[in-house]
UniProtKB/TrEMBL annotation:
<keyword id="KW-0560">Oxidoreductase</keyword>
<dbReference type="Pfam" id="PF01070">
    <property type="entry name" value="FMN_dh"/>
</dbReference>
<protein>
    <recommendedName>
        <fullName>FMN hydroxy acid dehydrogenase domain-containing protein</fullName>
    </recommendedName>
</protein>
<feature type="domain" description="FMN hydroxy acid dehydrogenase">
    <location>
        <begin position="8"/>
        <end position="181"/>
    </location>
</feature>
<dbReference type="InterPro" id="IPR000262">
    <property type="entry name" value="FMN-dep_DH"/>
</dbReference>
<dbReference type="InterPro" id="IPR013785">
    <property type="entry name" value="Aldolase_TIM"/>
</dbReference>
<dbReference type="GO" id="GO:0016491">
    <property type="term" value="F:oxidoreductase activity"/>
</dbReference>
<dbReference type="InterPro" id="IPR037396">
    <property type="entry name" value="FMN_HAD"/>
</dbReference>
């Protein structure tokens, strides 16, 4: 499906907006709305985009650019550039390989895969599918035993850090998802 759409676009997508358009065409509306939508009137979603637009690069001229190195470290782990895969839920809605494929892409890009607590692939599947440096995003559920067991599983499977979510006392009211139910 994606290959056909690439041909329609006459050439490979060259930026995130073009990838988003391909996703809109390829995915069932319900899944596209889930991935692309935000909560309530989506002010925060828009502001996230605007905030990045306000950041501009300061040009530095007449400097040696023959050796450019964007690599950095996160908690002591070296990555190729200051970009990581943020935790996001249920990648299998978009592709049968789900988070396993995402983790492989992270490994190929020499960056860190942060696996979501609500991934559609298990902690073990993602761990055994590639050698990406892996962190695990944790929601602390009311039943603390669930969190304990998750932490034990991620430790056993070589995940290097817990990305602790502290700002979701309740889920956002996502209006598109309510309509698509
Ligand atoms: C479809 C979708 C699913 C997400 N699922 C999770 C999740 O399971 N756990 C989590 O901690 N954050 C989740 N997030 C939040 C992202 O990790 C990220 O913090 C958020 O999208 C803000 O970054 P952005 O402005 O680059 O999109 C999700 C975001 C999206 C768009």
């Amino acid at each position: 499906m994606v290959l056909i759409l690439l041909m329609i676009m006459e050439g490979e997508p060259v930026n995130v907006n073009e990838f988003q358009e391909l996703a809109r065409q390829a995915l069932p509306k319900m899944y596209y709305d889930y991935y692309s939508g935000g909560a309530e009137d989506q002010y925060t979603l828009k502001e996230n985009v605007e905030a990045f637009r306000r950041i501009t690069f300061r040009p530095r001229i007449l400097v040696d650019v023959s050796r450019i190195n964007l690599s950095t470290t996160v908690l002591g782990y070296k990555i190729s550039a200051p970009i990581m895969v943020a935790p996001s839920a249920m990648h299998k809605l978009a592709h049968p390989e789900g988070g396993i494929a995402t983790a492989r892409a992270a490994a190929a890009s020499n960056t860190i895969m942060v696996l979501s607590s609500v991934s559609s692939c298990t902690i073990e599947e993602v761990a055994s599918s590639c050698n990406a440096i892996r962190f695990f995003q944790l929601y602390v559920y009311k039943n603390r035993d669930v969190a304990t067991q998750l932490v034990q599983r991620v430790e056993r499977n070589g995940y290097k850090a817990i990305v602790l979510t502290v700002d979701v006392p309740m889920l956002g009211r996502r209006e598109a998802d309510i309509k698509n139910k």
